[in-house]
Write a structure and sequence with these properties.
There is one protein chain. By secondary structure, the chain is mainly α. The chain has helices at about 1-15, 25-35, 35-60, 60-80, 80-95, 100-125, 130-135, 140-170, 175-190. The protein starts with a helix and ends with a helix. The mean pLDDT is about 85.
Amino acid sequence: ITYLYYTLKSINKVAAGWFTEKVSRKGVIADMKKGAGYGLDVLTSGMWMNADSVIIGSMLGVKAVAIYQAGIKLVQGGVTFAQIVSNVFLPAIAKEGDLHLRRTIEIKMRVQLYVIGLIGLSIFYFGRGAITNYLYQGKYMELQELLPIFGVLILSKYLTAASGVILTAIGCQMVRAIGNLAGLLVFMASM
């Protein structure tokens, strides 16, 4: 924090006029506290994304990790639409002061996310042969059997995305982050 403070202070001196506000240590710390929930959320999400591969590797071996990673990369691509929908609705939910109108916006968002999640599940279930043959040229045939499970994972991510967006929009990012951290700790303890 001290390094950041003095770096910003130096930049402020060099680039006089670029910043309209003076940088203060208290201001930097206050901003970091405001963003702590988001930072914790990003940290725990990153840990979730890596813990699974380590566990699969230790229990099932390298080939299983390769197959899993081939599937999880498809999931990561498939959940991109959740971010898009969230980025559209989050500002609208956050600025809406009328509780009834906010709930209406939240319902619209949930419906869109749920439908996209169901489409993802359907693609992974009905298109599993085409996906493995086209994208992986038959190299990961074992993945074909697992794609419906990855489809359920996509659906679950879309079902939970709405709640995360709502928590963020109403200023409860830290609640979301603590929930993710608690889930990660329980998961790791169960191994």
